[in-house]
Amino acid sequence: MSQTDLPDPARPKEQITTDPSRASERLRAGGLTLTIGPWVIAAVLLAILPSIFTSNAALTIMNQMWITVVFALAYNMLLGQGGMLSFGHAVYAGVGGFACMHIMNASDFFASFPLPVLPIFGGLFGMGLALIVGSFSTRNAGTVFAMISLGVGELIAACSVIIVAFFGGEEGISGDRTYAMPFFGNEFLQQIDVYYLTSFWVLVSAVLMYLWSRTPVGRMANAVRDNPERAEFLGYSARWVRFFSFVASGFFAGIAGGLFAINYEILTEENLNTASSGVILLVTFLGGVGLFFRPIIGAIVFTLVQTVLSLQTELWAFYAGTLFVATVMFFPGGLAGLMMMHVPVFKLGKARLLILPYLKTLLPAAIGTLALCALVEMTFHVRHAASGDHEMTLFWTTFDSHTALPWIVAIAIAVVGLGIARMTAPALRDAWNEANTAGGAA
Questions:
Q1: Exposed, middle or buried, 133 (CB in 10 Å: 0-12/13-18/19+)?
Q2: Do 123 and 258 belong together in one domain?
Q3: Could you give the angle at which helices 90-105 and 142-159 cross, rounded to 10 degrees?
Q4: Contact 284, 295 (CB under 8 A)
Q5: How far apart are CA 361 and CA 39, in angstroms?
Q6: Do 278 and 405 sit in the same domain of this protein?
Q7: Within this chain, do residues 65 and 149 fall inside the same structural domain, yes or no?
């Protein structure tokens, strides 16, 4: 009797195989495969950026950007991959940074190893604190975990002004990175040297966190996030999966704190408080939670807003908050999700159908939004400028904010711009639907 003559229950099960060399089957295979191309491009980009932006100010901004990238990716290990909303994650970066500052000040010990090794110590201290806190905070997710993280964050932030020996009180702790053992003759006196050190660590940390997301624990973190009861039914402990993810996140947050200590050579209570934890939450949501690379975009955008825009206006935090609220309300996938929405359009070859509708709608909307910003800036100037200071400069134009003409012009531009955007929005919606529909004219 042949196998085809056997009844269905008696037939041997067909063996299912996967080929990790094929991109479509890597996820199913579950191996620690790594596509080299994007990482090589990222390394090349990090290497050539100082040739494009040569000033020390630009290098400092990029250093801050990469530190925020590491911190945001570490936070995404909790929120995006594990579903754990933390309101106090800055304490792990802060404790790692303070530990690195103490190592800097221990001159004999600090002089015995090169500076590029220092972030590892920050990561170990951050991981040590995460081991302690995670032992009781990861029993549950959701509101319970969020409230415990908030309480722990407030507790350690309060300790920063009480335990002066470690945190330095209100003044914080400062150090000097040049006391480390020279690394191939480099004492890291110049900002460009610190940039390449930071770039090296952001690339290494990103690769390690990406590989972590492809381990069984990283995959199960997604399952525990979506359905912890089913994960428990399959034999996995949701608590231990959350615990390991929490500890790993604390390690990389500590690395971010160590990089902060190297870059700025000072840490204060601001590196530990709830405001810093709220900023990294904002950054992660701004880029988008879930997929690995999304927080990178949020970190880049927020750092530019915090540094570049803050040089132009005192209200930069207001605009950052408005952008965050608009992103959460209208683009839950974040800025990266907004970009990824266009992938099907390009695959269908219909991207050119959106060019004209975008120009007709988004350009007037942008102009109207800038006019609203002008109204906000003029209101702030009228309310808070010194007595007799009536002149202000906005969009490279100097005018008297206490006269009616600038207000009339700004209101008119805002009404016209936003009105045109609203009128052309239905045509943009139709074009979007057409561009996302298979078939038809491209």
A1: buried
A2: yes
A3: 30
A4: yes
A5: 36
A6: no
A7: yes
Residues 350 and 239 in one domain: no
**How many Å apart are CA 24 and CA 195, to the nearest integer?**
36
The amino acid at 338: L
Q: How many Å is the Cα radius of gyration of the chain?
A: 26
- Of 287, 313, 333, the residue at which a domain comes to its end is 333
pLDDT in tens, 57-90: 899 999 999 999 999 999 999 998 888 999 999 9
Verify that 108 and 249 share a domain, yes or no: yes
On whether both 262 and 282 belong to a single domain, the answer is yes
Residues 365 and 420: their CA atoms lie apart, in Å, by 8
Residue-wise pLDDT tens digits, 255-288: 999 999 999 999 988 888 888 898 999 999 898 8
Q: Tell me the whole-structure pTM to 2 decimals.
A: 0.85
Residue 33 has a pLDDT of 56
Residues in the chain: 442
Domain assignment of residue 40, yes or no: no
The domain tally of the chain equals: 2
Tokens encoding 205:
């940390």
Q: Which domain holds residue 261?
A: 54-333
**Residue 375 vs residues 72, 236, 413: alpha-carbon distances, Å:** 33, 56, 11
Tell me, yes or no, whether 171 and 114 share the same domain: yes
Confidence of residue 232 (pLDDT cuts 50, 70, 90): confident
Let me know if residue 300 belongs to a domain: yes
Q: How far apart, in whole angstroms, are the C-alpha atoms of residue 176 and residue 417?
A: 52
The answer to whether 269 touches 161, Cβ cutoff 8 Å, is: yes
pLDDT of residue 440: 56
Q: Which residues pair with 400 in a beta bridge?
A: 391
Q: Which residue is it, tokens 């319970």?
A: 144
Q: Which of 310, 333, 356 is the last residue before a domain boundary?
A: 333
